[in-house]
């Protein structure tokens, strides 16, 4: 995920407080402040376990992931090879219902989760939790694979396909239909409708504020920084506006084409940004290859016997779980929107494909970032850890990561800029689609409504490039994670539905019925 909550705490100064834009920003922040504080404190309210304080929403996500893992017999391990085969198109016929193939659905969903959290969030985790936090990030990522399996299976199971082939799916659909099926009588239908509307509103708000405005804001800030800051070519008053207009045009051209266009772009963009970033990690790791064994030992040992300053074993575990849960979005209900558009007649196949998402996002990308930081052992990181242990402020996670790469690649800020731009653009595109599905659910499916949304979304790309709306972004993050509360309740209730879908698909594999599709794919 883009880690809007953490990064918004220290937003870039893109406007002058004494200028017109600064006054607008101040007014908006003042209006949202009391609302944001109340809702934010509720969603991210903290509980204390064994002397360690952490947000309750993280425990809610992790417990659900553990329950689904056990319930489905460690599906993320047993079905891993089958999931990879499905992504490769091995069992998929071209004439199955849907708009995009399994690989495009996976890349579209990944483009909404792989973001600044994989760069900044990991830097924060290793700094405040020590190397051992990496181990628990991996564990949380592995558990989250089961949650993605459940919610994305339901996303396809209860999706709606219009006469023109356009697909609509996500929590607003499976909560409405699924709960009506599982809970007898009018109560089930009423509860499902209420939760569906709330889910759509939350997704729409975050799509505009967190998935759009924040991404545009941070992209311009990074570009301005590497080009000379206030004195560089992007330091002028009109630079942010021009950048916002150009970015809005690029985003508009993609989202107007719908999920087929988005899938085509993200299927190229996501692998590109992953290759660039992972290549940089491998270079740093390769140069320090002799330090890898000791770093691995440090990560494993630190997970169970951490230094006293990191809050004990429970403290390190919570830090790792928190950063992983915030990064891969397992259980939030966002990914099923993209996965629902897949071409398949077996809902469980996309659930199996979706379980690869946390593996790529957290187990691979986040782990490589953490390993790079631990191996580099920069003076900056050591000083930052000492500051945190002493009770000081947590440093900027991007800086921690960037300093680690700079030990081998002094020019890494430019590579990081490319990565941030790719991460941000892909996230805006994907959340543009998520928001569109929520908008059409709320206001009706027709071309006029769709065009209005596209224009509004692109306008907010421009607004996000110019303004720094801390309160709005904090509220947007709280809204998104509140969705997890309702979504996971629905997932628990609909476990029997997923079990039935899985059993039926396994029976078809055993009978050879599924293998016949390979010849027509």
Automatic annotation (TrEMBL):
Topology of this chain in the membrane: Multi-pass membrane protein
Principal location class: membrane
Transmembrane is among the record's keywords: yes
Segments passing through the bilayer: 54-75, 194-214, 234-257, 269-289, 295-319, 352-376, 411-431, 452-473, 479-498
Entry keyword set: Cell membrane, Membrane, Symport, Transmembrane, Transmembrane helix, Transport
Subcellular location: Cell membrane
Cell membrane among keywords: yes
One Gene Ontology molecular-function label: amino acid:sodium symporter activity
One cellular-component annotation, GO: plasma membrane
Gene3D superfamilies: Amino acid/polyamine transporter I
NCBIfam families, alphabetized: agcS
Family that this chain belongs to: Belongs to the alanine or glycine:cation symporter (AGCS) (TC 2.A.25) family.
Name of this chain's protein: Na(+)-linked D-alanine glycine permease
Organism: Saccharopolyspora erythraea (strain ATCC 11635 / DSM 40517 / JCM 4748 / NBRC 13426 / NCIMB 8594 / NRRL 2338)
């Amino acid at each position: 995920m883009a880690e809007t909550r953490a990064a918004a705490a220290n937003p870039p100064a893109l406007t002058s407080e004494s200028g017109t834009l600064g006054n607008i920003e101040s007014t908006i922040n003042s209006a949202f402040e009391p609302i944001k504080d109340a809702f934010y404190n509720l969603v991210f309210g903290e509980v204390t376990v064994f002397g360690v304080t952490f947000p309750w929403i993280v425990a809610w996500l992790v417990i659900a992931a553990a329950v689904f893992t056990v319930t489905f017999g460690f599906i993320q391990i047993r079905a891993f090879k089958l999931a990879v085969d499905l992504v490769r198109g091995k069992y998929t016929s071209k004439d199955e219902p849907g708009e995009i193939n399994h690989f495009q659905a996976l890349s579209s969903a990944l483009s909404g989760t792989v973001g600044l959290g994989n760069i900044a969030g990991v830097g924060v985790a290793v700094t405040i939790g020590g190397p051992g936090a990496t181990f628990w990030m991996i564990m949380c990522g592995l558990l989250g694979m089961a949650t993605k399996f459940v919610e994305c299976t339901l996303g396809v199971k209860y999706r709606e396909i219009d006469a023109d082939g356009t697909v609509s799916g996500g929590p607003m659909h499976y909560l409405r239909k699924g709960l009506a099926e599982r809970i007898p009588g009018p109560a089930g239908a009423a509860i499902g409708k209420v939760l569906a509307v709330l889910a759509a509103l939350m997704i729409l708000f975050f799509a505009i504020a967190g998935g759009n405005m924040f991404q545009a804001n941070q992209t311009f800030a990074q570009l301005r920084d590497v080009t000379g800051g206030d004195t560089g070519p992007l330091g002028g008053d009109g630079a942010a506006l021009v950048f916002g207009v150009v970015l809005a045009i690029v985003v508009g051209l993609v989202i107007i084409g719908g999920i087929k266009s988005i899938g085509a772009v993200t299927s190229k963009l996501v692998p590109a940004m992953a290759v660039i970033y992972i290549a940089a990690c491998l270079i740093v790791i390769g140069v320090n290859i002799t330090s890898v064994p000791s770093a691995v030992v440090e990560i494993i040992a630190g997970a169970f016997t951490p230094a006293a300053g990191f809050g004990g074993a429970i403290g390190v575990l919570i830090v790792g779980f928190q950063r992983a849960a915030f990064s891969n979005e397992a259980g939030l209900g966002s990914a099923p929107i993209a996965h629902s558009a897949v071409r398949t007649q077996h809902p469980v196949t996309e659930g199996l494909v979706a379980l690869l998402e946390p593996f790529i996002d957290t187990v691979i990308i986040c782990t490589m970032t953490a390993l790079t930081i631990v191996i580099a052992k920069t003076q900056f990181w050591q000083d930052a850890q000492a500051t945190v242990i002493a009770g000081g402020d947590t440093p900027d996670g991007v800086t921690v990561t960037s300093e680690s790469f700079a030990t081998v690649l002094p020019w890494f800020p430019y590579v990081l800029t490319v990565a941030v731009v790719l991460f941000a653009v892909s996230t805006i595109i994907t959340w543009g689609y998520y928001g569109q599905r929520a908008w059409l659910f709320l206001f009706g499916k027709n071309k006029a409504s769709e065009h209005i949304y596209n224009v509004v979304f692109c306008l907010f790309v421009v607004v996000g490039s110019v303004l720094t709306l801390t309160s709005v972004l904090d509220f947007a993050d709280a809204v998104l994670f509140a969705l997890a509360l309702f979504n996971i309740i629905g997932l628990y209730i609909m476990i029997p539905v997923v079990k039935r879908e899985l059993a039926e698909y396994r029976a078809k594999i055993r009978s050879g019925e599924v293998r016949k599709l390979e010849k027509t794919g």
